[in-house]
Amino acid sequence: MTTRTLSPTDRYPSRVGTEQKFIKRGDPVLWGPKKDPLDQVELDQFHHHGFVVREGLLDPDTVAEGLAEVERLRADPEVLQSDHVIPDPETGDFRTLFAVHDTSPMFEWLAADARLAGVARQLLDDDVYIHQSILEVNGPLSSHPNPWHSDFETWHVEDGIPAMRTISASIALTDNHAWTGPMTMITGSHGWYLSYEDDGSQSPNE
Asked: 10-residue block means of pLDDT along the chain (206 residues)?
């Protein structure tokens, strides 16, 4: 597990003591007054629940192009030999590709598309950059589970991001069902920070 020296000004300490605890969020959820592209109903949903779902965001041609790009990446020998790829520990199949925007021009373009980046700029009231991008392929009923975790905890402790001025965006290119390994969200969890104990184990994200 990665640890670091506790700063007296660190509002979100983690992996520095022996107690696991929840710390109330000390940063805004909505940073600015902008009302586009999300409307007021969607902004309220994001503020209260911590996430908002936009059905049909991408047109069918873009979805098809994205699925074709996933298959291309899964079959590319150079990609498969990259340090950015994590195979499924049980099957050895392609499961995760980190820094996908650096590997795939198609996904680099999609990440910068106004339908995604515009929402991030609205919520954060600022220009944005990509801190981390991941392609996940979850097989139905068979893939190794990815346990609940807080992305910000890892970004804060391991990468030094000081405040909760970040947005996680997920694009589902296939239908989500309980049996297809979907992402699950805990409503209201964005209002808290889970500080992990320093017990010598792996990062909560691993």
From this structure: 60 88 95 92 96 94 97 94 88 89 96 95 96 87 71 93 95 86 88 85 53
Residues in contact with 123: Cβ distance below 8 Å, sequence separation at least 6, in sequence order: 30, 31, 32, 38, 46, 167
Q: Which residues pair with 192 in a beta bridge?
A: 24
pTM: 0.85
Buried b (16+ CB within 10 A) or exposed e, 41-56: ebbeebeeebeeeeee
Distance CA(112)–CA(169), nearest Å, equals 12
Give the amino acid at 165.
R
Q: Which of these, 188, 57, 58, 47, lies nearest to 123 by C-alpha position?
A: 47
Closest CA to 43 of 142, 145, 114, 119: 119
